[in-house]
Amino acid sequence: MLGLYVVVVCVSGSAIVFRNDIYDWLEAGGKTVSYKGLLYHWLSWLGKLHGSLLMDSEGMTANAIGGFLLAVLCLTGIVVWWPGIVAWRQALTIRANVGWKRLAFDLHGVVGFWSFAALLMWGVTGGYFVFPQPFRAAVSVIAPVTLTPAPSSVGFSPVPRPRVMPLGVRILRGFSYAHYGNFGGWPVKALWVLLGLAPAVLFGTALIMWSNRVLAPAMRRSGRRPEG
Predict the structure, then answer these.
(1) Structure pTM?
(2) What does the pLDDT look like over 182-194, one tens digit per residue?
(3) Angle between helices 100-130 and 56-81 (to 10 degrees)
(4) Burial degree of 196 (CB within 10 A; 0-12, 13-18, 19+)
(5) Closest by Cα among 1, 4, 2, 209 to 108
(6) Are 54 and 47 in contact, with CB atoms under 8 Å apart?
(7) CB contact at 8 A, 4 and 201
(8) Distance between alpha carbon 200 and the CA centroid of its chain, in Å?
């Protein structure tokens, strides 16, 4: 169930990475009202699916828990996958002519390795959006998280002084930038779209490996053969 949840949330997230860009394109392009209405509807639906699983506040809480579980899954997955200092480069190779079972294993390891950091970040920042206070408390240990007035010149000035954004605030804001890919233009967003599809590959290859290692032997022991 956790794997299916991750697929739904990540794939729906990929679908809305360019949502604001699409909105701008619709507004500037003079599209028909019905065409814009249809796209707005589906983008809004995908946004709700991604943010709250279509269940409002309860869905947001479930999403945060799912995000934290995704982070745990990433950390345990990289530990299980780690082949050692000597063999880690070889473990990132997808070999040809090794059979579909080994191909699924290699593909799972390679895709998991290259998407590990992004998936871990999405899981943690997804939890932050719903439960920000523990993150603010943790960041405040090393950097201030409240806005403070900028130093003023000598003497009284009736002009309001600008506020300086502390390091802690910039760190917390960076969580949002990282989650949505809003820090490097369209190339980063395109990469986020691609990485968001990785869980679908991981889920599919994990099912294949589970079937080969668990389901098929169990069915052989019971005297039955797996269908297909």
Answers:
(1) 0.83
(2) 998 999 999 999 9
(3) 140
(4) buried
(5) 209
(6) no
(7) no
(8) 12
Residue with tokens 């889920």: 203
For tokens 């099912």, what's the residue?
A: 207
Predicted confidence (pLDDT) per residue in 157-202, tens digit: 555 555 678 899 999 999 999 999 999 899 999 999 999 999 999 9
- Report the C-alpha gap between 62 and 215 in whole angstroms: 30
Confidence label for 90 from pLDDT (cuts 50, 70 and 90): confident
Q: Which of 211, 203, 212, 6 is nearest to 107 (CA)?
A: 203
CA distance 191 to 108: 19
- Separation of alpha carbons 228 and 209, rounded Å: 15
Amino acid of residue 119:
L
Residues whose CB falls within 8 Å of the CB of residue 115, separated by 6 or more in sequence, listed in order: 195, 198, 199, 202
Q: In residues, how long is the chain?
A: 228
pLDDT at 101 over 60: yes
* 70, 123 contact by CB (below 8 A): yes
Which helix (H) or strand (E) is 81 found in, with range?
Answer: helix 56-81
Q: What confidence tens digit (pLDDT) does each residue in 30-77 have?
A: 666 677 788 888 999 999 999 999 998 899 999 999 999 999 999 999
Q: Give the rounded distance of the alpha carbon of 188 from its chain centre.
A: 13
